[in-house]
């Protein structure tokens, strides 16, 4: 059994993907070929935004977003402490200071009331300039954007949605319409790392926005700060393009994605039915749809439980055992253990079960462990 079964997915899509790759090999436009533009259009349509700018990976996507919002030394960017390292790394890489925020214990996402508390703290200390919030759609569940946007408006902060795991998730608005992950905040980012809900066969990422000016800046930053063309350089940028071959692969995977998302939801439902009396299983607030990047449960006895799963050949993973404020790389921020009680407790008690659309035949084995 695989934790994420990319081989089963490839077997299912092999003819279509092979054909797409062959087309690229034949036309030879390996960099910024026609598939990149086609994918950007399809992604904009799926996510429901005006502009998609693909790039080399999800970490670069965050860096490009921070560059576009002109975030730099002396700025504070608020982000959850319970997340993947890249969220906070991109902030520090931009020269700004990540200010960590505790999590909500049911959704695992950034806690709006703690967020406001930390913003007030930074303002009263007067050392850093509060500039932006990066909210993460952790494990596939969109963060509480209604509450986050309200706080951002109050303190005049930009919002970046880190939808690396959230792609495919949504929040249903008051008219019953799905607002999809990738469309929240001022700029949103995602990753096409192979294990993400929509993954390619290498590194890949994208930035989403409805703002014309940001879209133009993002396209420039992605190719060496280009002006009229890539030999006319009007600002310092990066080299962060999505390969045409990866775009071709993603086009076929995006076509299949809604069906896969439905399978992921069915699997999450049966996990819930069969495991909720033994573990604290994830809660999806009403009006929210998760992309189930991970199915993460809370155990009182994590080491023993993990051992029991592994003995039966069920691969499980711990995302994440270390919060950002506990990472050696962020030692200089002088955060103390105990400053983030919810996140610290999650880091000690969560683990994730296999989750992919081709898992059905393995489910009974997983349910028989308890
Ligand atoms: C994976 C991930 C990223 C980074 O994506 P890469 O494509 O691996 O650079 C950023 N944020 C979160 C929350 C992620 O899970």
CATH superfamily of the largest domain: Type I PLP-dependent aspartate aminotransferase-like (Major domain)
Look up the CATH topology of the largest domain.
Aspartate Aminotransferase, domain 2
Give me the number of helical elements: 11
Shape: globular
Task: Tell me the fraction of residues in β-strands, as a range.
Answer: 5-15%
**Strand order, sheet with most strands:** 1-9-8-5-4-2-3
Biggest pleated sheet: 7 strands, mixed
Mean pLDDT: 97
Give the helix proportion (percent range): 40-55%
Description:
This protein has helices at residues 6-27, 34-47, 58-68, 85-93, 112-125, 145-155, 212-222, 244-275, 302-311, 341-349, 363-367, and strands at residues 51-55, 75-80, 97-101, 129-136, 158-162, 170-172, 178-180, 187-191, 205-209, 288-289, 295-298, 350-353. It contains 11 helices and 12 strands. The strands form 3 sheets. It has a 7-stranded mixed sheet, sandwiched between helices. Strands 7-6-10 form a 3-stranded antiparallel sheet, with no helix packed on it. A two-stranded antiparallel sheet has the order 11-12. The model has no long low-confidence stretch (mean pLDDT 97). The chain starts with 5 loop residues before the first helix and ends with a helix. By secondary structure, the protein is an alpha/beta fold. It folds into 2 domains: 6-101 and 108-253, Aspartate Aminotransferase, domain 2, CATH 3.40.640.10; 258-367, Alpha-Beta Complex (Aspartate Aminotransferase, domain 1), CATH 3.90.1150.10. Bound molecules: pyridoxal-5'-phosphate (PLP). Residues 57-59, 83-84, 86-87, 136, 162, 164-165, 191, 193, 203, 205 line the site of pyridoxal-5'-phosphate. Pyridoxal-5'-phosphate is lined by residues 57-59, 83-84, 86-87, 136, 162, 164-165, 191, 193, 203, 205.
């Amino acid at each position: 059994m695989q934790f994420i079964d990319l081989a089963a997915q490839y077997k299912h899509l092999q003819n279509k993907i092979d054909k797409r790759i062959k087309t690229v090999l034949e036309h030879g436009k390996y960099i910024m070929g026609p598939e990149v533009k086609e994918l950007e259009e399809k992604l904009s349509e799926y996510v429901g935004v005006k502009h998609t700018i693909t790039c080399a990976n999800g970490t670069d996507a965050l860096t490009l977003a921070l560059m576009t919002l002109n975030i730099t030394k002396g700025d504070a960017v608020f982000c959850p402490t319970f997340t993947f390292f890249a969220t906070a790394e991109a902030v520090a890489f931009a020269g700004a200071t990540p200010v960590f925020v505790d999590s909500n214990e049911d959704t695992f996402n950034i806690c709006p009331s703690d967020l406001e508390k930390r913003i007030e703290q930074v303002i009263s200390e007067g050392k850093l300039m509060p500039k932006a919030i990066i909210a993460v759609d952790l494990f596939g569940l969109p963060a509480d954007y209604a509450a986050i946007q309200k706080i951002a408006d109050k303190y005049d902060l930009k919002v970046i949605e880190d939808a690396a795991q959230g792609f495919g998730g949504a929040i249903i608005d008051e008219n019953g319409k799905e607002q999809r992950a990738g469309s929240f905040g001022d700029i949103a980012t995602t990753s096409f790392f192979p294990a993400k809900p929509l993954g390619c066969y290498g590194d890949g990422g994208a930035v989403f926005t409805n703002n014309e000016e940001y879209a133009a800046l993002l396209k420039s930053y992605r190719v060496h700060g280009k002006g009229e063309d890539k030999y006319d350089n009007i600002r310092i940028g990066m080299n962060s393009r999505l390969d045409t071959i990866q775009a071709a692969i993603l086009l076929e995977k995006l076509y299949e994605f809604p069906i896969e998302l439905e399978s992921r939801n069915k699997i999450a439902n049966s996990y819930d039915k069969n495991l909720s009396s033994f573990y604290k299983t994830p809660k999806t607030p009403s009006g929210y749809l998760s992309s189930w990047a991970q199915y993460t449960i809370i155990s009182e006895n994590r080491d023993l439980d993990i051992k029991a799963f592994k003995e039966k050949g069920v691969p499980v993973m711990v995302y994440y055992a270390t919060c950002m404020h506990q990472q050696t790389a962020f030692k200089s921020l002088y955060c103390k253990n105990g400053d983030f009680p919810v996140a610290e407790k999650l880091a000690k008690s969560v683990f994730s079960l296999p989750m992919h659309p081709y898992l059905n035949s393995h489910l009974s084995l997983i349910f028989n462990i308890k």
